[in-house]
Each structure stands twice: as C-alpha cells, then as structure tokens.
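Summary of Year 1 activities. Much of the first year was spent building the evaluation harness for sequence design. The harness presents a backbone, in tokenized form, and records the residue chosen at every position. We chose the following record to illustrate the format because it has been used consistently in internal testing since the harness was completed.
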C-alpha cells in the first residue's frame, strides 16, 4: 500500500493501481485503521479523477465504502456512499437543571415506557398513512406541523410553538428536496408505523451531564453550563430508509452495468447524477431524510413529555442542534459544485457558511458521541476545514465487530454459542456509573465502550487537524438502547 504520514493527524493514501485520485485520512499517529477500511476508501477514490475523498477518525469497514468517509464528486451519485440508515443523525436538547437535582432514573424509566426500543419495533399510536405520510416525506418537520393539526394522537404529544422554535436548530430546517412519487409502496409501508421508534444497533437516547466546558463564550451563546443535564438522541430513518437504500443500490448496480461503469468493488455502484436513476435516488433519499428528521422530532417530543410528567412541570428543553450523517447533498466548495456524500460523517460548517441562520456568528454545532459509558462532545465548525469539505466524524468508530464484542447467543434460550471478547465483568465495570435500559440484554455488549475507539483521542484528532473546536464534553448518566 502507498501511504504517507503527513503529520500527527493526517495520512495520505497516494494514487496507485486503479485509483484516480489521492485520498486523505484523519488518523492520529497513535491510532490504527483496518486495512480493509483503507482499501474501501481507495475504492471510493477509483470512481472520479476530480473527486475529493476523505476518511474521518472513526473510519471502519462499511458496505461499499467505509463508515467514516466523505466523497465529493461533480458527476456521480452512489447510494452505497450514503448507506442504509439514511439521515441517521444526532439531536441535543438542553435542560435548565443540574445533575444533582435531576431524577435521572425516573425520567429514563418514563421515556422507556413511551419509546419503543430495538430493531423492527413500531409505534402504532403514531402511525401515518395516505396524505399524512406523503406530507411528512415531502416536507419534513414543517409537514409534521400540518399533520399534527389533523391527527389527534400526534397533536397530543407535540407542542407547535416548541416545534417552530426547533426548526432553526435543525440542519436544513428539517427538510430536503424530495418527491414521494419516486418511492416504492413497500418503503412507505415500512415507515408508516415506525415514527417515534428508536431502532437497534448504536441508536440511543442518553441523559448526560456537562462534564467540562472548554469554550465559555461559545457555551454561553449555546446555553451550555457545567453540571447541566442534557439529552442526546441518535436515530435515523428506520425501515423506510433501509428499504430506499436497498432498492436504489440494486438500481445503481443495473445502471452501472448498462452504462459500462466499472465498479471498484461489488458493493460500490454509482450512477451519473444527471441520469434518471441519479435524480430518482436523490428524491427518494430526500424522503427518507425527511422521515428521519421527523422521527427525531417526535422522539424529542416524547422525551420532553416524559420529563414533564416526572417533574410535574415542563422544562421546555430547547434543541441545541440536530445534525445529519449518512446523506448526500449538493454543495459549493472552492468554486466547485459537488455532490458531497457523508457516510458516518457529519457536516461541520464554519460561521461564514452559516449565513442567514442563528449560527452565523459561531459556526455550526457538531455533535460527536462516544459509545455508551464514555464521553460525548459539542464542537463548532471552523474555517480551516475546507480540505475535508467541512466534515468530521459522527462518532468514535468501532475497533471490533459486533460478534467479536458480544459473541453469539441463541436468542430463544440465551445459550452462548460463541463467547465474546468482552466479559460480563468487564462490561459491568465500564458501565457501573450509568443507568442502562436496553431491549435485548443478550446483544447489548455489541455496543460496549471497549468495542469502540477512544473518543477523547478521536476528538483530539479533529481539533488537532483544525476541523472543529471543542465547546463542551458530556458524560452519560442514563442510556436507553435497543
């Protein structure tokens, strides 16, 4: 492999073999990356000679391209470079209370009663169909506002004034360009009853305490204080997004074959952006992204209502920011118009690119969670991050597979078929200070802190490379997971 260490934080993958351009990886010299993940990044650099290809510090093996990668290209769209969980993203909500006065376990239990956890779960009370679902898919969070006026159950849990205030704190105000007419009925059906559900895997709701403030001016502007309780939500477009991704990955393979486009690997198909297939994917992806924005909005409402029930009063709980990962957008960078795919990566715009928003003086907030049991961070985008297309990682990144971490367990009776690398004792040690609520105790070790990279070192890489600056560090008090 042709690699060159540029500095403490950067590794260059030089153009070699079928690569059409170099790739850049943000990787601390004390960190390692899987060779297969780096090979997948080389594959992404084999599509377009004018592409910009970047690996973020949480880079690890994904489908077609690594999780933790950025691909900017003028010509092509690749569903695999977005991934299956379209617009998986993060939302951070603030409370005015300190951790010493907040009933963490009671609130976590209350959220658990309202929010279905785990893969394949539905929330029938919040089901959408027909024109209501179409409005949400086409218009995102603003569409949900109109649905709430005619749907009694959704209207019951939502506060229209709070939703209006949230819109300016959501990336793209919670709506991408979308056309539900290009979506299959199967995709719509899969999402119809999953609004207000968390999902499995690394999705979570965390009650956190602000452990440390590093930029007091920015923290004050954002409403963050040391010792404060905040709530972080991590989820995406559920089965609807997965179905959209599956269908369009197959379409991309067929299109690439018809057009004679060479696929770098059997999973990494791509299509011309100006083709029917490219336009249809962007419109379907927009629908899935809008569904994900709405899903986080509904979960935020469920959390707010649970807190209000426990405390017998509303805390308001304003949104600090809601940011996407697993998405492709048309953006302008260095005078070029690019389709920027971010997979397991998140936008990190500086103040100059946040004009006409409430963040035009600070820069875009960036949310980087660790694994459960470790720290999470609020950062701000910086002007010096142009080489990454103003992108950073979306988390810590795995260092071991789910099976390696937890082993194999037969679900029907809990029999251990293959032991995991993380023992029960070790898992309990790393989670001893966190109140954990999970749907499946047999698989929860898949998400153990030891299965992930050191998030503090990951964030040091982001800061050292000039991609973002830290505002505050949070630690978990309670975790709800599938």
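For this record, the design step produced the sequence shown next.
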């Amino acid at each position: 492999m042709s690699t060159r260490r540029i500095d403490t934080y950067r590794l260059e993958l030089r153009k070699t073999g079928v690569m059409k351009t170099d790739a850049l990886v943000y990787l601390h010299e004390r960190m390692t990356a899987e060779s297969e993940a780096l090979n997948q990044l080389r594959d992404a650099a084999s599509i377009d000679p004018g592409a910009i290809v970047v690996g973020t510090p949480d880079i690890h093996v994904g489908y077609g391209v690594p999780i933790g990668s950025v691909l900017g290209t003028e010509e092509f769209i690749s569903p695999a470079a977005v991934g299956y969980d379209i617009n998986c993203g993060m939302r951070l909500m603030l409370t005015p209370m300190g951790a010493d006065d907040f009933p963490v376990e009671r609130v976590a239990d209350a959220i658990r009663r309202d929010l279905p956890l785990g893969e394949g779960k539905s929330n029938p009370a919040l089901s959408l169909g027909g024109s209501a679902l179409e409005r949400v898919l086409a218009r995102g969070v603003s569409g949900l506002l109109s649905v709430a006026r005619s749907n009694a159950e959704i209207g019951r849990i939502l506060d229209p004034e709070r939703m209006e205030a949230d819109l300016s704190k959501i990336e793209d105000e919670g709506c991408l360009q979308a056309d539900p007419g290009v979506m299959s009925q199967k995709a719509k059906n899969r999402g119809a009853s999953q609004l207000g559900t968390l999902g499995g895997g690394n999705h979570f709701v965390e009650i956190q305490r602000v452990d440390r403030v590093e930029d007091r001016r920015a923290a004050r502007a954002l409403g963050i204080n040391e010792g404060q309780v905040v709530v972080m939500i991590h989820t995406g477009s559920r089965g609807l997004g997965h179905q959209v991704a599956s269908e369009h990955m197959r379409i991309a393979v067929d299109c690439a074959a018809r057009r004679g486009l060479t696929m770098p690997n059997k999973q990494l198909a791509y299509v011309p952006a100006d083709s029917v297939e490219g336009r249809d994917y962007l419109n379907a992806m927009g629908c899935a992204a809008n569904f994900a924005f709405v899903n986080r909005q509904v979960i935020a409402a469920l959390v707010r209502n649970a807190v209000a029930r426990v405390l017998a009063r509303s805390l308001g709980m304003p949104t600090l920011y809601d940011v996407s990962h697993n998405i492709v957008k048309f953006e302008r960078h260095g005078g070029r118009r690019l389709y920027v795919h971010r997979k397991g990566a998140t936008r990190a715009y500086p103040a100059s690119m946040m004009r006409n928003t409430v963040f035009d003086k600070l820069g875009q907030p960036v949310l980087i969670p660790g694994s459960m049991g470790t720290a999470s961070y609020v950062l701000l985008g910086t002007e010096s991050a142009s080489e990454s297309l103003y992108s950073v990682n979306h988390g810590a990144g795995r260092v071991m597979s789910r099976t390696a971490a937890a082993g194999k367990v037969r679900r029907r009776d809990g029999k251990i078929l293959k032991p995991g690398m993380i023992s029960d004792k070790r898992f309990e040690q790393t989670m001893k200070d966190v109140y954990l609520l999970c749907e499946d105790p047999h698989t929860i070790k898949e998400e153990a802190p030891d299965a992930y990279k050191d998030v503090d070192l990951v964030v040091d890489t982001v800061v050292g490379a000039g991609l973002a600056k830290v505002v505050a560090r949070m630690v978990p008090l309670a975790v709800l997971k599938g």
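The two ends are 39 Å apart (CA to CA). Quantitative recovery figures across the full test set are reported in Table 2.
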